[in-house]
């Protein structure tokens, strides 16, 4: 199918369990309305960009957003909907790495196979219907960043970068992304707790709002850790019931408020 072989060090399914937890559509991405609105409108206008750089803290949702952008780009109905349809063959894939036109690497991975990339990267970048997502771009060595900068001059594929350390990425390389460099922010406390509540409902986990607020505050609204807490409850309790003792065992935080009802609410 391809005129090159992907090296065995590139494990496309290594994050499948995590990817299963991620929202797949732009409309479902939490806390990034300032980015989603622009990309949605661009998709509806038939002007979805070919370069996106996402910068921000760990757990803010950079990888989730990058994959949602990629799904929108690859979905045949994106111009009609301004988003991925969620129903076509590509949208239905739990792991985008199973789609031949999508390539996801970390900067560290690309360093390891750079000799291969130097010979085969052009075959990926020249395909206008393909997408390259480079996560943790700052881990790509400076010489390789400079080489990638030159490759992007003629690239036709969609290219998405994500980095937690913008200052470690070559300025000229980031400059390739122009106005499509976005700051990904941690969600608000309300958004983080509501996201956890949705996962609780989906998994059959019972928790009070007070308990979820405590967890979200402890993790400073890091969505990856907040969602992981809900899955941990599902995996490590007999009945999916969150107790104050369980919150303390996971986070080390002593609950200061005892809620009277599993559906109790507090003002945020």
Brief characterization of the structure:
The protein is of the alpha/beta class.
Detailed description of the structure:
The protein is α/β, with parallel strands linked by helices and 268 residues long. The chain has two domains: 16-183, Rossmann fold, CATH 3.40.50; 189-251. Helix content is 43%, strand content 9%. It is built from twelve helices and five strands. The protein has helices at residues 16-19, 33-44, 62-74, 78-81, 107-112, 114-125, 142-152, 171-175, 189-203, 209-218, 223-236, 244-251; strands at 51-55, 102-106, 131-135, 158-163, 181-183. Strands 2-3-4-1-5 form a five-stranded parallel sheet. Helix 9 (189-203) runs parallel beside helix 11 (223-236). The longest helix has 15 residues, at 189-203. It starts with 15 loop residues before the first helix and ends in a 17-residue tail after the last helix. Mean pLDDT is 86; it is low at 11-17 and 258-268.
- Give the name of the CATH superfamily of the largest domain: P-loop containing nucleotide triphosphate hydrolases
How much of the sequence is in beta strands?
A: 5-15%
N- to C-terminal separation? 53 Å
Q: List the secondary-structure elements in sequence, H or E.
A: HHEHHEHHEHEHEHHHH
Structural class designation: alpha/beta
CATH topology of the largest domain: Rossmann fold
CATH level-two architecture of the largest domain: 3-Layer(aba) Sandwich
Question: Helical element count?
Answer: 12
Report the principal-axis shape. Answer: globular
* Mean pLDDT over the full residue set: 86
CATH class of the largest domain: Alpha Beta
């Amino acid at each position: 199918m391809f005129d090159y072989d992907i090296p065995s060090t590139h494990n496309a399914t290594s994050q499948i369990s995590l990817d299963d937890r991620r929202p797949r559509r732009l409309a479902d991405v939490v806390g990034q309305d300032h980015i989603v609105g622009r990309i949605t409108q661009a998709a509806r206008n038939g002007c979805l960009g070919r370069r996106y750089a996402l910068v921000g803290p760990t757990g803010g949702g950079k990888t989730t957003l990058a994959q949602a952008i990629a799904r929108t780009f690859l979905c045949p109905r994106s111009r009609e909907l301004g988003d991925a349809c969620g129903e076509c063959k590509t949208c239905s894939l739990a792991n985008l790495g199973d789609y031949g036109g999508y390539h996801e690497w970390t900067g560290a991975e690309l360093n390891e196979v750079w000799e291969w990339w130097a010979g085969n990267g052009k075959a990926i970048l020249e395909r206008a219907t393909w997408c390259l997502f480079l996560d943790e771009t700052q881990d790509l060595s400076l010489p390789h960043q400079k080489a990638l900068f030159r490759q992007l001059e003629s690239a036709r594929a969609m290219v998405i970068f994500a980095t937690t350390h913008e200052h470690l990425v070559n300025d000229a390389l980031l400059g390739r992304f122009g106005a499509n460099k976005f700051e990904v922010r941690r969600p608000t406390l309300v958004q983080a707790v509501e996201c956890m509540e949705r996962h609780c409902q989906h998994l059959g986990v019972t928790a009070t709002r007070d308990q979820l607020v405590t967890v979200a505050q402890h993790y400073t609204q890091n969505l990856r850790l907040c969602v992981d807490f809900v899955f941990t409850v599902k995996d490590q309790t007999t009945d999916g019931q969150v107790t104050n003792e369980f919150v303390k065992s996971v986070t080390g935080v002593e609950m200061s408020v005892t809620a009277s009802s599993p559906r109790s609410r507090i003002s945020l």
